[in-house]
Amino acid sequence: MAESGSQVKVLIVEDNPLNMRLIEMTLRTGGYHLLRAADGEDALAMARKEKPSLIIMDIQLPGMSGLEVTRLLRRSPEFAGTPIIALTAYAMKGDETRFLEAGCSAYVPKPIDIRKFPKLVADMLSRGSGGG
What is the CATH number of domain 5-124? Predict the structure, then answer.
C-alpha cells in the first residue's frame, strides 16, 4: 500500500532537534516525503491527517509516551499495517519485547547506525507489515 518514489510519507516523531535532524539527513537520500512531530499529540494529529507509510517513533516523548501513541494508532484499522519503528536511548532488558507488544514493528537503539537505518526503513516499507 506504500506509494512510490518521493510520495512515500515517513512520519518522524522525535522531540530532540539534533536527533530529528540526524534522522532526516539519514533518510533524505531515500526520496521520502518526511513529516515531523515533536510530541505524542502532534504525532497522532499528523498521522491521522497525512496517513504515513511508515512511522519512526521516539519512545521518550514529553507528555504522552511513544508507546501510548503507538497503542492509540494500532486501535485504528487504518494504522493496523503501518510499520512503526521504535527509537530509544534508554534501552533496558525486556524493552524490545515491551515495544513489540505495544505494536511496534521494529526497535532501534539510539544513537542510530546511519548505515543500517535506511536499509531497515526500506525493508519495513517493502514489507508493509505492522506490529502485533
Answer: 3.40.50.2300
Nearest alpha-carbon partner for 87 in 63, 120, 115 = 120
Copy the grid coordinates of residue 122: 526500506
| Spans of all domains in the chain | 5-124
For 21, 34, 106, 108, 115, the CA distances from 25, given in Å and listed in that order, are 6, 10, 20, 17, 12
Instruction: Dump pLDDT digits (tens) for 7-57.
Output: 899 999 999 999 999 999 999 999 999 999 999 999 999 999 999 999 999
Whether the CA torsion 107, 67, 114, 121 is positive or negative: it is positive
With beta carbons less than 8 A apart as the criterion, state whether 61 and 90 touch: no
At residue 103, what is the residue type?
Answer: G
Going through the chain in order, the beta strands assigned E by DSSP cover 9-13, 33-37, 54-58, 84-88, 106-109
Q: Is the pTM of this model over 0.70?
A: yes
